[in-house]
């Protein structure tokens, strides 16, 4: 990040120590909720004994499944299918329990400690049922809930003419978002007007309002979400969960505000997790290094219930496997199976961590098979500027479009910037001295800006200040500052005259929230459109006040003028305009990663010494924000490569229930991360010419780390993420003491 803030940038509340998070909110006479969770991975709920809990003084209510019957199950937010609709999660289960940590009841009490004590006294009678999803990983186990297949080109013919075919089976274990701030919600029911006030929802305001309104049998306009600061979202924080509906229902039933704040153990048990993925990948390459075709058989572990983006999870696998390369043919088969593990949902860069790791690993193997260095093989196969815009047909239902940029030139530019041949020579010298050290490469295409449409409003207030309102949320990514700059530029006024009210229930309807690196693309374009409408309104007002045609009106910091006559902003307000923007598909940008890793021969411990991440964002409206997103995402990607894994033991019991077992990176685990922002300026898919950078670092860094480890081990690569010391030691044992020739061959870039 820059040493000092850019001029005019308002410090983010989280950095200034002024953030107001969900647990900082309080309402008069509030009570507290604790959730009773299943300790069985699979079973039939035969009964609950709540008498001991109710006997404690200060316990207000115990909510059991029968209290909520009938209540709609939690819907899928997007990309649902009939197969998924049959297994939606209930707020509380009437009969079947499907994972450890599933909510089965809730206690409402006068203070949080009492609520937790009472929750421990609730007794569940559960008939055990068979637990699934814990057998040895494989491809022919149980019939999946959902299958997806996509085939393009002549796959068999391409493999038949290949000079080399490389094959590998790879596994990517589960992760979770692990934000600093765990989940939480504060709900207050106003009986006089039948309005529910909520503090806590942050990701998709309109969806949350609609689901909770349906659960309570009220209309959406009677559910109001208030802006709160968020201690990191990372895909998981801010989604709609059963606890959100429970707290809202309880607030109306007990007639008092209800607060629920999750502890870290609950988070690791019940928060959305990334899919465990098994890939059986084959790549066909010609003698000259042309990448001909690939096949991939994929098994995704969905967990107990599908949430919240439905079939987008397997679809994203198909969408992201090709990367920035041209292929003659491809075939992907994805099987999505259920298990008695926590549900899979959105975790930063869903499926892309795996897809990029699998593809880039196979390309490294192909380079070794052909005898080309890894950079040269990529250069020969990257989509060229002459081929852009490039349309890729994924299946009969989806075609994606890439536009703008020069992938080969950007790749060469970055490798030169990190030292190129000098870096190769330095690594070779270290290897000659006996070190196991390697250089890792990865190139990716990252899509951003999904969700079809967005809307926003901007008001010139009586004070003479401008206020932007949007349902998109500031969750630490710098959205408020970005939208402030968009409005200021479009209105041609100083940014310090613009205020932003994000995450607002009072923004125009239709907003689809904050996810998928979409906020600058969609909310930014909507604010731009709203500003255009506002300028038209203000020109008309100013022309009427100053006399003359609207074409002679000019704006400046103080207001409007025509010739020597002028009118101040305060006299032109209040004036409001709304804007909207829509798009059929994402905008894709090119990214590249270079990593240097050292392996300890005795312990198998991997030390990442350097990471460089670069991304073509089209245009950087808020450069410090783009840089922060790329760097922060890379930290999560490094952690996914080396540390983070949600594990389960016998009978479906979670083994990662604290931050002792679930390892997060410390400063000692993260090297210097160099960030380079490319601005191709060639994005026409949206009016601002931008691509979202929010998930880039997470999506690509693991592939570069794995590539560096493989390079350090003479081309032998771990087959699983995260890369554990045990796995590295096994590879060292397998290859014995690497010879200098082996090491030099692995070093080639």
Describe the structure.
With 749 residues, the protein is of the alpha+beta class. Among the domains are: 382-450 and 585-749, Aldehyde oxidase/xanthine dehydrogenase, molybdopterin binding domain (Aldehyde Oxidoreductase, domain 4); 454-582, 2-Layer Sandwich (Aldehyde Oxidoreductase, domain 4). Helices cover 29% and strands 26% of the residues. The chain has 20 helices and 29 strands. The chain has a seven-stranded mixed sheet with strand order 3-5-1-12-9-10-11. α17 (623-642) links the parallel β27 and β28. The protein is globular and about 75 Å long.
Keywords for this entry:
749 residues; alpha+beta; Aldehyde Oxidoreductase, domain 4; 7-stranded mixed sheet; 6-stranded mixed sheet; 20 helices; 29% helix; globular; disordered C terminus
Give a summary of the structure in a few sentences:
With 749 residues, the protein is of the alpha+beta class.
């Amino acid at each position: 990040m820059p040493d000092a803030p850019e001029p005019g940038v308002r410090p983010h509340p989280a950095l200034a120590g002024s953030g107001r998070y969900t647990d900082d909110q309080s309402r008069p006479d509030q009570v507290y909720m604790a959730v009773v969770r299943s300790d069985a991975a699979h079973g039939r709920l035969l009964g609950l004994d709540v008498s001991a809990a109710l006997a404690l003084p200060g316990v207000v209510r115990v909510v059991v499944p029968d209290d909520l019957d009938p209540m709609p199950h939690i819907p899928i937010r997007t990309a649902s299918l009939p197969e998924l609709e049959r297994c939606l999660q209930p707020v509380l289960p009437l009969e079947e329990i499907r994972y450890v940590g599933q909510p089965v009841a809730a206690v409402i009490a006068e203070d949080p400690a009492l609520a937790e004590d009472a929750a421990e006294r609730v007794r569940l009678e559960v008939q055990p049922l068979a637990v699934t999803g814990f057998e040895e990983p494989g491809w022919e186990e149980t019939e999946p809930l959902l299958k997806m297949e996509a085939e393009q080109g002549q796959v068999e013919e391409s493999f038949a003419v290949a000079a080399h075919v490389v094959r590998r089976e790879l596994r990517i274990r589960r992760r979770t978002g692990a934000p600093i701030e765990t989940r939480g919600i504060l709900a207050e029911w106003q009986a006089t007007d039948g309005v529910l006030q909520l503090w806590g929802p942050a990701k998709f305001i309109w969806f949350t309002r609609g689901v909770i309104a349906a659960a309570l049998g009220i209309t959406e306009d009677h559910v109001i979400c208030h802006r709160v600061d968020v201690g990191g979202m990372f895909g998981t924080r801010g989604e709609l969960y059963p606890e959100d509906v429970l707290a809202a229902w309880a607030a109306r039933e007990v007639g008092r505000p209800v607060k629920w704040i999750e502890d870290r153990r609950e988070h690791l048990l019940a928060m959305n997790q990334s899919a465990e993925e098994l890939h059986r990948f084959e790549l066909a390459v010609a003698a000259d290094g042309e990448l001909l075709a690939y096949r991939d058989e994929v098994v995704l572990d969905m967990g107990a219930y599908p949430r919240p983006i439905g079939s987008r999870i397997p679809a994203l696998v198909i969408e992201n496997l090709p990367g920035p390369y041209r292929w003659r043919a491809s075939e992907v088969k994805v099987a999505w199976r259920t298990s008695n593990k926590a549900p899979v949902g959105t975790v930063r860069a869903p499926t892309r961590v795996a897809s990029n790791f699998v593809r880039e690993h196979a390309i490294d193997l192909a380079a070794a098979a052909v005898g080309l260095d890894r950079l040269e093989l990529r250069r020969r196969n990257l989509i060229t500027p002459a081929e852009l815009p490039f349309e890729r047909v994924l299946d009969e239902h989806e075609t994606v479009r890439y536009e703008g940029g020069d992938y080969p030139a950007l790749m060469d530019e970055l490798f030169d910037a990190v030292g190129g041949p000098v870096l190769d020579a330095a690594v070779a010298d270290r290897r000659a001295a006996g070190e196991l050290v390697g250089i890792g490469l990865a190139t990716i295409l990252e899509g951003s800006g999904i969700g079809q449409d967005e809307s926003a409003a901007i008001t010139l207030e009586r004070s003479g200040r401008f206020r932007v309102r949007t349902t998109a949320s500031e969750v630490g990514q710098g959205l408020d500052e970005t939208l402030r700059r968009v409005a200021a530029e479009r209105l041609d006024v100083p940014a310090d005259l613009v205020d932003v009210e994000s995450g607002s229930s009072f923004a125009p309807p239709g907003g689809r929230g904050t996810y998928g690196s979409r906020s600058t693309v969609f909310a930014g374009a909507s604010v731009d459109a709203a500003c255009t409408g506002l300028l038209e309104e203000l020109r008309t007002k100013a022309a009427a006040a100053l006399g003359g045609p609207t074409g002679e009106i000019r704006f400046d910091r103080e207001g409007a003028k025509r010739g020597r006559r002028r009118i101040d902003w305060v006299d032109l307000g209040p004036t409001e305009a709304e804007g909207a923007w829509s798009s059929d598909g994402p905008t894709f940008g090119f990214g590249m990663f270079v990593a240097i890793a050292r392996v300890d021969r005795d312990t198998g411990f991997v030390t990442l010494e350097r990471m460089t991440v670069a991304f073509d964002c089209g245009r950087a409206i808020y450069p410090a924000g783009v840089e922060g997103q790329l760097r922060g995402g890379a930290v999560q990607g490094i952690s996914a490569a080396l540390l983070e894994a949600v594990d389960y033991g016998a009978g479906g019991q979670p083994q990662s229930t604290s931050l002792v077992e679930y390892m997060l990176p410390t400063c000692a685990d993260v090297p210097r991360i160099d960030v380079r922002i490319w601005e191709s300026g060639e994005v026409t898919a949206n009016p601002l010419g931008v691509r979202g950078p929010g998930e880039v670092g997470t999506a690509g860094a693991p592939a570069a780390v794995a590539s560096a480890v493989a390079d350090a081990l003479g081309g032998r690569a771990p087959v699983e993420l995260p890369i554990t010391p045990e796995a590295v030691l096994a590879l060292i044992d397998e290859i014995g003491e690497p010879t200098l020739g082996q090491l030099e061959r692995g070093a080639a870039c």
